[in-house]
Amino acid sequence: MTASRPLVAGNWKMNGLKAAAAEFGRMVEGYGPEMRKKVELAVCPPATLLYTLSVMAIGSRIAVGGQDCAVAAAGAHTGDLSAEMLADAGAAYVIVGHSERRTDHGESDGLVRAKAQAVLRAGLTPIVCIGETEAERRNNETLAIVERQLAGSLPDGVGPEDLVVAYEPVWAIGTGLTPSSDDIAEVHAHITGRLFARFGEPGERIRILYGGSVKPANAKEILGIPHVSGALVGGASLKAADFLSIAAAYA
Ligand SMILES: O=C[C@H](O)COP(=O)(O)O
To answer: Which PANTHER family does the record cross-reference, listed alphabetically (predicted)?
Structure first.
């Protein structure tokens, strides 16, 4: 896995029954050699579809990933899935700290960090999500919030290939709203600076995805912003045509 190509990752969230595999099949078909050279694609389906999609992805170079994991590797944790299980099912990535997990399940920065460590332990790459709420942005706290979340959520001792950061303003998720390009640029530059401060020069090469209402219509503009090295896409990743059209912003 190289950090040189940008990454467009789809997060299907709690969407997709068996029939959704056909949509993934269309993504596999559409991810041709030219696109592969320019952009890496990953799809994080519900865990029930992970193994099916990973088998379909063999030979296609589309990665699949999980949306969350437990901290422990195995044991008496009813209903949980370990990073090792996700790896066994074919995952290459695991999203941790998504704002919906932070909100719905009260996940703290410390827990997100432990989950990111678990992902690394299993040999996978964590996509660590951070981002401010609408109230925090209104109070001009955005940079302080992302800085605090980064400091608390990122694992230590990782190289640029081992880690992906996703900046997702909570108020932009699923709303059709997006920050201005200048605002996205400011936050991504700030995150880059913090990654440099924490990891040294390799930290500047850690990919920082933008997430929050990325659509085919705005992908080219958002993905062209300095320090934006890909996207974490929710709703628009459910349809192959939309997802591939977003990735085509790099073509
Ligand atoms: O993980 C993906 C994000 O939450 C963005 O979702 P969205 O593209 O539906 O706004």
So the answer is: TRIOSEPHOSPHATE ISOMERASE
> Residues 138-157: pLDDT tens digits?
999 999 999 999 999 999 88
Give domain status of residue 158, yes or no.
yes
Q: Which of 23, 84, 107, 168 is catalytic?
A: 168
229 occurs within a structural domain: yes
The values of phi and psi at residue 206, to 5°, are -70, 130
The torsion angles phi and psi of 73, rounded to 5 degrees, stand at -80, -30
Report the run of H or E that residue 41 belongs to, with start and end. Answer: strand 40-44
Domain encompassing residue 63: 7-87+94-121+129-250
Contacts of 174 (CB under 8 A, 6+ apart): 213, 234, 235
The C-alpha angle 45, 49, 52, rounded to 5 degrees, equals 120
Q: Is 105 a catalytic residue?
A: no
Residue 98 is a catalytic residue: yes
The set of protein residues with a Cβ atom below 6 angstroms from ligand 1 is 11, 98, 168, 173-174, 211-214, 232-236
Q: Is residue 48 part of a domain?
A: yes
ipTM of the prediction: 0.99
φ/ψ of 78, rounded to 5, equals -55, 125
- Closest by Cα among 44, 24, 32, 37 to 92: 44
**Location of structure tokens 């942005």:** 137
Tell me, what DSSP letter sits at residue 225? S
| CATH code assigned at 223 | 3.20.20.70
Q: Which one, of 51, 179, 70, 166, lies nearest residue 118 by Cα?
A: 70
Residues 6+ apart with CB under 8 A from 204: 160, 192, 195, 196
Number of domains into which the chain is organized: 1
Q: What is the pTM of this model?
A: 0.97
Q: Does the residue 24 lie in any domain?
A: yes
Token pair of 151 as six digits: 């400091």
